[in-house]
Amino acid sequence: MASITLDSSVLIIGAGTWGCSVALELARRRYTNVTVLDGHSFPSAIAAGNDLNKIMEEATPKPEDSDREYFFNRVSQLSGQAWREDPIYSSFYHQTGFIMSACSASFYKEHVLPYAKEFPDTVLLESAEQWRATMPEGVLTGDFPGWRGVYRRTGAGWVFARGAIEAVLAEAVRLGVKLIANSSEGAVTSLLFSDDLTNVRGATTADGRTHYADTTILAAGANSDLLLDFKKQLRPTAWTLAHVPLSPSEARIYKDMPVPYNIERGFFIEPDAETHQIKICDEHPGYVHMVTDSKTGEERSVPFAKHQIPVASEARIRRLLRDTMPQLSEREFSFARICWDADTADRIFLIDRHPEYSSLVLACGGSGHGVNPMPAIGKIVVDRLEGTMEERLRKMARWRPEQVVNRDWWDLQGRHGADEKIMEFGDVEKWTRIGEGRSEKL
Ligand SMILES: Cc1cc2nc3c(=O)[nH]c(=O)nc-3n(C[C@H](O)[C@H](O)[C@H](O)COP(=O)(O)OP(=O)(O)OC[C@H]3O[C@@H](n4cnc5c(N)ncnc54)[C@H](O)[C@@H]3O)c2cc1C
């Protein structure tokens, strides 16, 4: 592997949350020959990061942290600082507070109470009155049946995810990064290998063009798994979201509310400032789309795009609304989509040089929490590229196929909700028909 210099050519595949962060970091470190490819016009309609908002929680490493805890705490520390202070990121972070909650007694004990210990300035919410008092009158009118939570007022809230990727990429482009984003010139169809197949030399796009590069960074989210044999380290997994429209006057009342997150039911975040839509996610361990690989005969989950959700997901979202904001529970959705991410088996990110193809760097495995660390991802990936990545982080985020030799694709990976199982899109009988005049009646 030739050492990287500031004029080395660097190709980033994917202009989502991670690709944009990496592009900006490279530009800030004065790399002069950086190109980002994306298969959709920017911001991509299939990017998980092209979303109204995502939960953001700050954290700090502690001396007693296990390696796993250290990984998440250190990454959150790095990103928290940037979300608060970096002029490109800081306007997108809204420290409105966050409520971690559950309905079952066992999950409350196992997941929610430890959160209160971790962040001592929290307040317990054990009655509907206490829940309602966390937001302006008229917002939380529900009975919160069985809901118990821990309200963290500071160091958490949400980020405007789409705004962040747009601003970050705009800054990267201003600093000289080149973006090619469309379905022919930007869509990578395959990695480009050296003649002896021992290294990656760039990528080929749908228009048939070859893009040679000294270093290729694969940051194509869930679709990364279609471009390289990850040896089962990634499971493309989808979640579901819908938007409920509010009037401008309603939106003013719901503004600045903390993010209530129930590990069995889902979460919602205050309405978007421009469109006044409120995003709601139902919580579940995820959907897969298993396909038998014709070459290996093995099953793998293959992402596909759809701007609708299963009717069962709509039912879960409406149940969440009935519990919390029943005044919105019968309102037509204005938008819905399935949203894919790449789950590693331990949900720790995969950021490493490929062990065989030394010019290929992997930046994937967001595992359902890859927006929170967005500003840190660029730093960590470029540190890995330059050989300066913190050792404790490097060890955890390394290429690690040995962990997944017998990977159980149906493993819940610590998630809850719905029927406590991974669901298969092939089993979905009915989808919503949002935009066709009505959503399915439940
Ligand atoms: C419903 C849902 C809710 C979530 N909530 C949160 C949350 O609250 N907090 C949080 O921190 N995280 C959350 N996440 C996770 C987070 O969104 C992801 O971890 C993160 O966005 C992953 O970033 P990425 O850059 O890897 O992928 P993406 O943002 O998906 O970007 C991938 C990019 O690659 C492009 N691409 C794909 N294939 C190709 C190709 N062949 N050629 C060129 N380009 C290609 C795509 O067009 C896209 O732009 C959530 C995820 C989902 C699905």
Automatic annotation (TrEMBL):
An example Gene Ontology molecular-function term: flavin adenine dinucleotide binding
InterPro entries reported for this sequence: FAD-dep_OxRdtase, FAD/NAD-bd_sf, MTOX
Keywords: FAD, Flavoprotein, Oxidoreductase
Keyword Nucleotide-binding: no
FAD dependent oxidoreductase domain ranges (all copies): 10-384
Co-factor(s): FAD
Cross-referenced Pfam families: DAO (PF01266)
PANTHER family assigned to the protein according to its UniProt record, in alphabetical order: HYPOTHETICAL FRUCTOSYL AMINE:OXYGEN OXIDOREDUCTASE (EUROFUNG) (PTHR10961:SF24), PEROXISOMAL SARCOSINE OXIDASE (PTHR10961)
Family under the similarity heading: Belongs to the MSOX/MTOX family.
Name by which UniProt lists this protein: FAD dependent oxidoreductase domain-containing protein
Organism (species): Oleoguttula mirabilis
